[in-house]
């Protein structure tokens, strides 16, 4: 099937995945606006994926840019056999793993969400009462801290599920593991988070 026919076929289908595939195929034909559309659509989630995994804003930016660079390099050989988001996050996952293996053991990341500007983005609106704002902000910080304590594989699976909205099956494809292992990682991550946040909140209550 010619590239033009593949674009037409993808455009004829419905759904976000097919739209992404069509845009990628159009980019392969030299349509830079198609790449811009993909970039604008996925840039926020992809950047947050790196920030929440490693916590270093500059490093997150570097890996983020490297991911898009690899997308550009791989465009000529792209085959829409899987969702574009699965393919994109697989590239991101591999870059992250390569970095972690190069600098530290795979199960140890630095603390995340220590930057003041990142914490500010989680503050509630001014319409809420100061006390409500403080409670919501404190719980957000506890949650972020507890996420940072999760084993790397659990943290990645949880964030891909919560933030990217990926199913366990899609996450399994991204990280290259079995469906059951992915479900277990998400389940254990949720259980650990619930316990951690409850314990940390109790500590805060006891100090008040």
Automatic annotation (TrEMBL):
> What sequence ranges are listed for the domain RNA polymerase sigma-70 region?
38-102
The residues covered by the RNA polymerase sigma factor 70 region 4 type domain are 141-187
Pfam families given for it?
Sigma70_r2 (PF04542), Sigma70_r4_2 (PF08281)
UniProt keyword Cell inner membrane, yes or no: no
Q: Which GO terms describe its biological process?
A: DNA-templated transcription initiation
Q: Which InterPro entries match?
A: RNA_pol_sigma-70-like, RNA_pol_sigma-70_dom, RNA_pol_sigma70_r2, RNA_pol_sigma70_r4_t2, RNA_pol_sigma_r2, RNA_pol_sigma_r3/r4-like, WH-like_DNA-bd_sf
Top-level taxon: Bacteria
Work out whether the entry's keyword set contains Coiled coil.
no
The UniProt keywords, alphabetically, are: DNA-binding, Sigma factor, Transcription, Transcription regulation
One example of the protein's molecular function in GO is:
DNA binding
Query: Which family, according to UniProt?
Result: Belongs to the sigma-70 factor family. ECF subfamily.
UniProt xrefs under PANTHER family: RNA POLYMERASE ECF-TYPE SIGMA FACTO (PTHR43133), RNA POLYMERASE SIGMA FACTOR HI_1459-RELATED (PTHR43133:SF8)
Q: What is this protein called?
A: RNA polymerase, sigma-24 subunit, ECF subfamily
Question: Organism source for this protein?
Answer: Shewanella woodyi (strain ATCC 51908 / MS32)
